[in-house]
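Notes to self after the Tuesday call (sharing in case useful).
The group wants a holo model before anyone commits to mutagenesis around the pocket. I volunteered. Ligand is adenosine monophosphate. Logging inputs and output together so the record is complete.
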Amino acid sequence: MSFSELGLGEKLLEAIRDAGYTTPTPIQAQAIPFVLQGRDVMGCAQTGTGKTASFTLPMIELLSKGRARARMPRSLILEPTRELASQVQDNFQTYGAQHRLTTCLIIGGESMSEQTKKLERGVDVLIATPGRLIDQIDRGNIMLMDMKLLVVDECDRMLDMGFIPDIEKIVARLPKPRQTLMFSATMPPEIKRLADKFLSAPQEISVAPPATASERVEQFMVRVGAADKRAALRHLLKSETVKNAFIFCNRKRDIAILEKSLKSHGLDAGALHGDMPQSARQETLDAFKRGELTLMVCSDVAARGIDVSGVSHVFNFDVPHHAEDYVHRIGRTGRAGNDGRAFMLVTPDDQKQLGAIAKLTGMDIAEMKLDDAGFEAPAAGEAEDSAEPGRGRRRPARGRNAEPREANPRPAREPRSRRAAKPQERADEEAAADMPPPAIERYQRPEPDRQEPRRYAERRGPSDRYRRRDHEDDDAFSDASVVGFGNNIPAFLKIVPRLSPIDD
Ligand code: AMP
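Result:
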């Protein structure tokens, strides 16, 4: 099967050739003809299958006839994260190079007024995350009556992130009849329910997932003491031939510490997590994509769907809380026919999560012993602190080379003076010390435009899928403290009162 048999016009075929594609992927071969016929489609496919082009290509063809009117976009694509939304927009730029279609991103973290200006000029394709879209609709900046085509992408991810009520709210406002395409990697009952509600006589298409990670990615785990993680990571970065790598942490504050620590050791590192301004997020990702940044220290916001070709390594600095996140994380390497290597640092506290990963993947990850490869954990008293900033700073190393704990510990010694500490050790301490204090002390008033959705699934169930997760970034969930309000402290409680000095 070739692209020319799918019913796409000559301009698109040329753009496809320019993109270097010769044959349609199975989801493209199956979906494109139906989308061109105006049929609803339920596509069971995940990222890496060429799914994005399976809807962007026919959309360009369909939308090339006609023009958008001010504030009345003609089509809508809903994406769970800002990065995925921006990736879809890139697709329109690539494939739509010969067409004069306008796209607009409606995502949180970016200026609302810029988005509004664009909407006023008329937009053919709106690519949005649910929360910001609802804001813009509520403000009357978007009229939906011309919306003839809707794509709900990554439905199961939307479900995980608690976006389903938002999506139902948006879709309820869209005109009928319209063409609707839904894509999901899996079909849990909740997605099936949505499909029944949104789609009319859909064509169901299911494609096999791309080569599983285990086929393309060599996986290793490294057992290490919690205090030795940074040293172990640096050792791996030195001993492996790393072209570029994602380094996943569970908590945002650890991302910042690790990024700073790696930089202080002369390594080229950047950070990506959900608390960063959107412009910084995009800048880091673009630099990484262009090959101008080697190490991307990130949260799970980068784990799904982010398509960077030729990533040589993934390092799990932390064992992920959710086993399925492991699969998504390591799936950032070993893409598009390339091989990849994935390492995971495992501390004695991680046994339960490790078991969950083994159960999900159906395999035991090979253990690599760092001692064998010449790793020396920092000696006792010199260990790097992996503790949270602000907590007890220098714990003795508990790594494999650490001295065993004494039965009768000596009286506490005076802490070593900062000046006596080794320069690198000091740099790491500084990295930790510079870290922002916990969120409660760092609260800033939100921008006047409501931040990307702080809404959650109403429903709860015993399964993780229904647990609350923070808006478009799972990482806030990872930072969760689970007492009281848990991760959902009302904004007014986060305001730190400014105390004026007391006059004597
Ligand atoms: P996606 O599943 O849409 O995230 O696409 C995964 C990757 O496959 C992206 O890097 C696309 O550029 C690439 N791709 C999409 N369609 C094709 C095709 N027909 N041939 C080769 N690569 C493709």
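Two things stood out.
The pocket of adenosine monophosphate is lined by residues 21, 24-25, 28, 47-53, 307 (CB under 6 Å).
The longest strand covers residues 217-223.
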